[in-house]
Structures are given as C-alpha cells and as structure tokens.
Amino acid sequence: MNIILLGPPGAGKGTQAKRLVERHGMRQLSTGDMLRAAVKAETPTGLRVKAVMEAGELVSDEIVSALISDELEGMGRQTGAIFDGYPRTAEQAHSLDAILRDHHRKLDHVIELEVDEEALVERITGRYTCAYCGQGYHDKFERPKVEGTCDKCGHHEFKRRPDDNEETVRTRLAEYRAKTAPILPIYEERGIVSRVDGMADIDEVTGATEAILGFGQ
Ligand code: ADP
Ligand code: AMP
C-alpha cells in the first residue's frame, strides 16, 4: 500500500506516519527528514538547501523528487510507503506518478489531515524530538511520561528545529496554501482522497486513519 499524508506544517503527518510504521511495518518517506539529514551531513544538496529551509520556503522540485526516487530504489516491493511532506507542488505530484510507475507501485490513498490554522503555530512552536531516536513530543500535547526522558529509547537529550519559530511558520503556511493545497484536486479526480479531523486527539486521528486504510477491521 502506498499513501500520501497531506496537510499543512504541524497537522500531525509525522506523528501519524511514525505510528503506521510501528504498527503496520510501513516505511515513512519524509522529504523534510531527508533534507535535514543532508544539511547535517553537509552534503552538496544539504549546503544548497540550508538557507531555503531556514526561511521556510520550498526547495526545488528536482531535489526532493530525486530523494524520493532514491529512497524507493532501496525498498522491497512488499513494504508500504507513506509519503510525508511530499508531494508539495503540482510538479512533484506528476513526478511522483512517474516514480511510482517506474517502481511498479500504485497510489492507494491520499489522507488529508484537516486542521485549524490558528492551532498550527502553537503546535509547531511547541514541537521537539528526541535527539537520539527522533521520537516526537510537544510541550503541551505530547509530553514524555517521565519528564526529560524519551519514552521510546530512554535518552535525555532533545532538540528543536531551527525553522520551528513563529515567523518561519507563517511563511511555511503561506507556501502550503499557495502551492500544496492546490494539488488536492489531482487526487480528488481519481477518487482516492479521504479526510481526517486532525484537531482530534492523536489516538483518535490514528484510529480514523487506520480505518480508512483498512487496518484492524
Ligand atoms: P507535521 O509532520 O504535519 O509537520 P507533527 O506530526 O510533527 O506535524 O506534529 C506537530 C506537533 O503537534 C508535534 O509536536 C506533535 O506532538 C503535535 N501533534 C500532532 N498531532 C496532534 C494532535 N492530534 N493533537 C495535538 N497535538 C498534536
Ligand atoms: P517538513 O519537515 O515537511 O516540515 O519540511 C521542512 C522544510 O523542508 C520545508 O519548509 C521545505 O523547506 C523543505 N521541504 C520538505 N519537503 C519538501 C518538498 N516536498 N518540496 C519542497 N521543499 C520541501
């Protein structure tokens, strides 16, 4: 099964993708994570995209589509793919069609996480992750069970993204509205779009998503 999780920054795509990975053995393909890894490793791609990401703008379609294509290359055909944060433009949506065709995969579902924009700034500015395993947390909505200790791996160091500040969030939301939301009709025409209330509790969002994907019935 191949699915796209679509929604503005902070909608909960990464949170839900990680749960699907843990529970159903799917694989998360997050272009944001791949780009951050490239920035950290100071690869030529990383050096090219660093400033663009810090400004909250979109990096070029060629770069992200190449990352996705490379990632699928190394994946077994049985493993389901969760596209998280990709595609973000019409150009990327068309590239994804071609990439999936090349890999003999088909797109089964596009799940749109619907959220109130006012809630997103609070979600994003409160977001942090375990520096060791990447588990996601939130100052208010998803705290570790023992303060200062990661639930998943027990480590004590956490980090925040440099682009998770209010000013950059506004740019990222504007990019979403202008370039990403308009790609939904491409998938609506194919009858594969489902909507989930992303303002519900994290567990409820997972339940609704799993129901759409046919898990646990
Ligand atoms: P995205 O990947 O769409 O940018 P994340 O999954 O990283 O968003 O979620 C952003 C922040 O909001 C995280 O800190 C996460 O813990 C929190 N969060 C995610 N889903 C919910 C939810 N349904 N209710 C409240 N907080 C949430
Ligand atoms: P994310 O982790 O999805 O919030 O993405 C963080 C940043 O990485 C974005 O603000 C963009 O600068 C860049 N980025 C991630 N995915 C894409 C994409 N599919 N297209 C263009 N830029 C992207």
Which terms would index this structure?
217 residues, 5-stranded parallel beta sheet, 3-stranded antiparallel beta sheet, 15% strand, globular, binds adenosine-5'-diphosphate, binds adenosine monophosphate
Protein described:
The strands form 2 sheets. The chain has a 5-stranded parallel β-sheet with strand order 2-3-1-4-8, with helices on both faces. The mean pLDDT is 96. The protein has 9 helices and 8 strands. It is globular. Strand 5 and strand 6 (136-138) form a beta hairpin. It has helices at residues 13-24, 31-40, 44-55, 61-73, 90-102, 117-125, 166-180, 184-188, 202-213; strands spanning 2-6, 27-30, 81-84, 109-114, 127-130, 136-138, 158-159, 193-197. It is of the alpha/beta class. Bound molecules: adenosine-5'-diphosphate and adenosine monophosphate.
